[in-house]
Amino acid sequence: MLVYDFDGNNLPPVPLPTRIPKGIFQVDTDKEIVTIGILPFRYMENKSIIWQQDMKGNIIQETDATPFFAYDDFSNEVSNNQNTGQFDFYIFHWGAQEDSLYHYDKAANRLVPIFTIPFETEEIPKHDYIELPGHYIAEITTKVVGGTSMGGMNILVDKQTLKGCYFNLINDFLGNMLITRPIFYFQDGKFTLNMDPGNLLDALETVLAKSANLPDTEIQKLTEFKNSISIDDNNYLLTGKLKQEAKKLTASTGTEAIPIQIKSTKETGTIDSTEQENPDLIYYTATLETWKSYFPAHNKYKDWDSKNAKQVLIGANIDKYGKPHDVKIIKSSGIKELDEEAMRLIQAAPIVPAKNKDGKNVEQTNWGIPVYFPPR
Length: 376
Fold this sequence. Notes:
Layout lengths: L2 E2 L5 E2 L11 E6 L4 E6 L9 E7 L4 E6 L12 E3 L8 E5 L8 E5 L4 E7 L10 E5 L3 E7 L2 E2 L2 E2 L2 E7 L5 E3 L2 E3 L5 E3 L6 E2 L2 E6 L1 H13 L6 H12 L8 E6 L21 E2 L8 H5 L13 H8 L11 E9 L5 E8 L4 H12 L6 E2 L5 E2 L1 E10 L3
Antiparallel strand pairs: 1-2, 3-4, 4-5, 5-6, 7-8, 8-9, 9-10, 10-22, 11-12, 12-15, 13-14, 15-16, 17-18, 19-20, 20-21, 23-24, 23-27, 25-26
């Protein structure tokens, strides 16, 4: 981890104990403690999802990554927004699965689930969660273009009542300008939107074209602001501090509330209530432990040209005996023969089933694994 002072001078770097495919961190400069969370690839040498270390690279404490493993795909993301003073932690899974937003309890050295949405649908949509002082935001992906999530529905949930609604975020300082994909603009207790001057001009022109309901003074202010902008300007930063006490959700007059099923995963005391109620709760995910030998030995296309390497992302439900069911393609290679071979390989694979906290085999749904051509 590279370190600089405010004059741009190099300071001694902070060594890290492992590779970090994607990660987030927080530095306590007074205590000289670094808290680091990573995207937990299954086959990395490090088996920690989150840890604390000193500035010399010595691990103080670490949390086992096994229950949180993600398949080795950089389409997944890890995030930490710190809008409430808590060290929040969330993994976005490209191969969507039911999951939770967590807080890292440093005293207990564990990730505590605080929020999730039970979709209760056959196909779980891609989704993302963040926490605000008084609410949670969920973004549900409804459109993917060129392998990129383009967002979709935004859901706002009151922390106290767990009532939720669909919402749009607008900037009422700029004529009710629509802010698309608002989940990306809340960090460290602030709203921050970095806008290219050309994009800001386009947005202001859109607002002014629909300004019939704006007062004349507002139109004049927006027009003067637009005229002051040059496309050669530096970027414009729109920022504001979040209120730490948020009002409860209220429906606008004349609108119909749309019920949304929301589930809080807050725990009581130090024991996760979900674990008490559900003996089938997965603590160790299903895994193909022999992947290094299995794929080269059984892949019909093991000699596939490495210069044209391909990957198929396979999803399945794994029963308590390790047998895959409902095997499907989540992300195609674009080549029918490779897709079919990937499905065959997983259907025949010797998978170790998921286990609960007591070590008993349990069923796992929405399990995912990549198949590479040629095998890695």
